[in-house]
């Protein structure tokens, strides 16, 4: 038996008349959820889009689940694609770091040469030791440069030469 409370609730939820609400509830033996589904099938109300969620024994409507499953699948593809791009970038940087070298020179003679990746790791994990050693080396007449297929004509080499010249000039001004 359909109650006035059920009719009012369905009217408020579906924005339909009392007569349509009573007819839907009577057709579904007073089951409010079934009445909503019944009205959807008749085209009197529209199914919720996006995040609706109803369920019944006869029909299940899980737009919320389908909507989120689609987005999770889509997000997963983007996540994996992003990881592949990051991985590709890291491999490219490691290759470049291994094919190019950081050289320590005294005059024109190369005193030490090691892959740029080693310098990068030293700067990341032991910068408090690496940077002072490089600066102290400048005052002992050492020069630094990057060498390799990707770094021969690098503006960083010009900056390092300028720093070495500045250290040499400072050293000369202190000696006077």
TrEMBL record:
The keyword Transmembrane helix is assigned to this record: yes
Annotated protein name in UniProt: DUF4342 domain-containing protein
Alphabetized UniProt keyword annotations: Membrane, Transmembrane, Transmembrane helix
TM segment ranges: 116-142
CDD domains: UBA_NAC_like_bac (cd14360)
Domain of life: Bacteria
Upper classification of the organism: Bacteria, Bacillati, Bacillota, Clostridia, Eubacteriales
